[in-house]
Amino acid sequence: MTLEASVHAFRLRVIARAQVLGNVSQACREFGISRTLFYRWRRRYLAYGPDGVYPRRWGPRRGRPSGLSAEAERAILALALAQPTWGPARLAVQLARPEPGGWHLAPVTIYRFLRRVGLQTRWQRLAVLEVHSARIAGLLTERPRRALARAARRRGAPRRRAAGRPGLPGHVLHRETQRVGKVWQYTACDAACSYAIAEVGMAFSAEAAARFLTTRGVPAYRAAGWPIRRVLTDQGSEYRGAFGQAAAAWGIRHSRTRPRHAWTNGFVERLQGTIRSELWRVEFRRRFFTHVRFLQAALDRYLEFYNYRRPHLGYRTNGRPPAEMFWGVVGRENHDHLAHA
């Protein structure tokens, strides 16, 4: 018996009991209802018969019409699909900047619109990107490829080994290295303003880490007019030997985190997660990378956006891009000169 049928039977029993007793008040006390409710049921029973006391089927009520204009909806949809891993709060901050059009929208408004169009989660937005890449470029990421492989095995097709895809590796100047696949990413994050410097390469060694420090980290800080007083790294083997010697040669004090205390280097750990979420999860769904220099070009484009045009919500920046503080002493001309050097 369904819930509606049970409620319907209960109402009929109340009406029948009142007729047997000839006393509405006593029947209402026995069943624990008010006389007002009883008379409401009896009026419907007398007017429409037993079916009149069947519970009403309430359909969804029409809500308020959307207050978003068509231009605002297109701007939200375009930015949400261009940056599928961003949430409503990040989308709201970016849409408020003059470049997208200066749309000052509340995060809940953006979320409600994304829910209406079925894109309220990042995985739904990434799925749209996967479908588009599969149709246009024939690109399949690991998850759809595994699903197709399982379907092929169920049909009895021979199992094939999936081809590997390019991956990621990875003042206090915070340093971190991360690996996915055969490519390493060396990442540095300024502790004062979150300015990011990163490089991808095929080598994982202390010499490669020292080269990243001397060719990318130190020149950027010298051009901006800031000294690197200390560099904080984890206990990785790539931050010993040649790396320590390079840091000492530049007068930089090298510190390491304690074992199993990754949160000590939390600034760069968070930066690694941001780059993985906002760049690589999206780029690997858009195209194949056939050489490490293409990975570096994509990383450089993202760092340009991250440092100059992406509002930061942390307490250190208060909504300003990191480059506004990092290059504020000498201006951006030195950065452009450094980039072309």
Fold and architecture overview:
There is one protein chain. The protein is an alpha/beta fold. Helices cover 51% and strands 9% of the residues. It is built from 14 helices and five strands. It has helices spanning 3-21, 24-31, 35-48, 70-82, 88-95, 107-116, 122-136, 142-154, 206-224, 242-249, 266-283, 292-308, 322-326, 333-339; strands spanning 172-180, 183-190, 196-201, 230-233, 253-256. Strands 3-2-1-4-5 form a five-stranded mixed sheet, with helices on both faces. Strand 1 (172-180) and strand 2 (183-190) form a beta hairpin. Helix 1 runs antiparallel to helix 2, helix 5 packs across helix 6 (107-116) and helix 9 (206-224) runs parallel beside helix 10 (242-249). The longest helix has 19 residues, at 3-21. It is elongated. The chain starts with a helix and ends with a helix.
Overall 3D form: elongated
Largest sheet: 5 strands, mixed
How many extended strands? 5
* Fraction of helical residues: 40-55%
State the end-to-end distance.
Answer: 79 Å
Structural class: alpha/beta
Strand neighbour order, sheet with most strands: 3-2-1-4-5
By DSSP (H or I, 4+ residues per run), the number of helices equals 14
Mean pLDDT: 82
Low-confidence stretches: 157-171
Relevant terms:
341 residues; alpha/beta; 5 strands; 9% strand
Topology overview:
Layout (H helix, E strand, L loop, with lengths): L2 H19 L2 H8 L3 H14 L21 H13 L5 H8 L11 H10 L5 H15 L5 H13 L17 E9 L2 E8 L5 E6 L4 H19 L5 E4 L8 H8 L3 E4 L9 H18 L8 H17 L13 H5 L6 H7 L2
Parallel strand pairs: 1-4, 4-5
Antiparallel strand pairs: 1-2, 2-3
